Structure formats: C-alpha cells, structure tokens
Amino acid sequence: MTLKQLEAFYWAATCASFAIAAERLHLSVSSLSKRISELEGGLGLPLFDRRSQRARLTPAGEKLLPRAQALLQHAQTLRAAIAQPAEIEGVCRFGVGELTALTWLPKLVAAARKRYPQLRLEPYVDVGGELRRRVQNGALDFAVIAGNPTSPSIRALGAARYTWCAAPALVGDAVRISADLLGRHPLVTLPREAGTTRILDDWLTASGIATAQPLTCNSWGAVAGLLLEGIGIGFLPVSWATALAQRGTLRILRARPALAALPYAFSHRDDDTRPLIDAMYGLARRTVDFGMAVRLL
How much is the pLDDT for 78? Predict the structure, then answer.
C-alpha cells in the first residue's frame, strides 16, 4: 500500500467520475485505475463495484475512505513541516462568475503566471449554483462565488456593488426606481441560481414590492444589452452603469433602500488541503477588484 495508491482511491471515491479524478492527479484514467487495482490487490478486497455505469464504493471501500483521507492529510502536514515549499505546478481548473471574468480575472491570471510559471490555469465561467456543484464533484479546484463564509472552506474575498438603471427613453423623466416602473416594465436580471438573487429578493421585500415581471438571462453582457435596448429595468455593477450613464445611453435610478453590497467568497472542498488552494487564495486576495472598469464597455 502506497500514498499514491491511496490518493488515487480517495479522489476516485470523492469525484464525480474516474476521469475527473485522473485529471485532478494529472494521470490518465488507465494509470488511475491501475493504482486502484494494485491497492485492491494488496488488500485482497474490491473497493469499487464496477458493474454499474458509475463505479460505487463497496463496504470495504466505504470503510477505507475516511482512513485514507486521514492518512493523506497527515502526509500533507508532514511534508509542510519538514520540506521546502513545493513549487505549484500542474493544472488548476477554477470557476468564476461573469462579473469576475470581465473585471479582475485577467489580473489574477497574470499574477499566477508570474508567481507560478509551471502552473497551467483553466478558468471556467458560469453562475454560482453550477460552480458550487462543480467544486463539490471535483471538476473544479475552487470557485469565486457570491456568499458569506460559512465554513473554513469558504473564505471571504470581497464585495460587489450594483445600482438600478434603465434606458432614458424607457423611463421618461423618472430618476427613481419605483413599484410603478417595475409594474409596467420587465425586470431584466440573472437567473435564480445567480448570487445576485439574494440582494434582489432582499430589496424587493424591503421596498414592499411583491411581484415583478422577470426577464432572466445568464449573462451580464446580455443583461446590459437588453437594458440599453430599452427592453426593461434592471441593475448593473456600479462601474458599468456609471460608464454607460456618462455616455447618456443609460440612466442610473436612485433607490431607497439602495441595493446591498454582494459579498463574494473563495470556495473549495473541505477535504482539499493541497498547497495550490492556499496559494491561489492568496493571489485572489491580492487581485480582487469588482469595481474595475470593464475594457469591453
């Protein structure tokens, strides 16, 4: 029994598939399967039931899993205590929302490439709900998602601010968001699984507005385009809305109360103690800036 065999078993057991586990360990699927087979041979017991489409743990595998996790964590602690810091290398697949992608993601990638030249970065852009699922099933190493820290694996990162806005031709002389405006025009916004849902729901409740006509789209760029076209009323990041208002193509609408700031966090799996995670969190803390101007606007 070796640490590499236990590592192969552990990630295969906790990722959505052997293919994802192999990518996490920078192995081919056949090499991963070979390590697991060698471990099973040494124990004299099957650890996975491979009769179904997705391999499932046998009773022996269920019993071994927490022990393998503990051994791997002890090994990582030992390495950190007595060895020189390892160079961060390999592949890092991580998720961000579109706002991060269009603001400070380039700074993060540039900083990581400079600090860890042997690390290959593969950003993935989606809404928060999907990013959470991909982190938990092992497809992503970490994700930057909306929300407050609720566990050691969800770490505070920053906050984004938004403001209501609409095309001047749509709202006439109105300078304030109101129930009347939202009753007459669609509310253009991201889908329910997006992090902005929480600040929108809180604002509607505080404003006493029970319903609105939602027109949802999973792209901030598309939301901005729909607002510019006068399709409806919505909110955008403050820096975006300010730039467009200065051009006269959108009008910022005052609101009382204002939309709350939306906190963001760096999220990874509870059991992922690799140096990569701390390294990327440190870089994210140094580069995060949701108020950056968008070069595409």
Answer: 77
| Cα–Cα distance for residue pair 191/221, rounded to 1 Å | 14
227-258 pLDDT, tens per residue? 999 999 999 999 999 999 999 999 999 998 99
pLDDT digits (tens, 9 = 90+) for 138-189: 889 999 998 887 777 899 999 999 999 999 999 999 999 988 898 899 999 9
Residues in Cβ contact with 265 at an 8 Å cutoff, skipping those fewer than 6 apart: 144, 145, 146, 147, 148, 149, 154, 155, 156, 157
Nearest C-alpha neighbor of 224 from the set 174, 295, 165, 292 = 165
CA distance 18 to 35: 12
Residue type, 19: A
Superfamily of domain 90-158+262-287: Periplasmic binding protein-like II (3.40.190.10)
Fill in the amino acid letter for 135.
V
Structure tokens at 296: 């595409």
One-letter amino acid for residue 210 of the chain: A
Q: Over 266-289, what HEC string results?
A: EECCCCCCCHHHHHHHHHHHHHCC
Residue 85 scores a pLDDT above 80: no
What is the identity of the amino acid at 88?
I
Query: How far, in Å, CA of 124 to CA of 119, rounded?
Result: 16
CA 136, distance to chain mean position in Å, is: 11
Hey, what CATH class is 162-252 in?
alpha beta
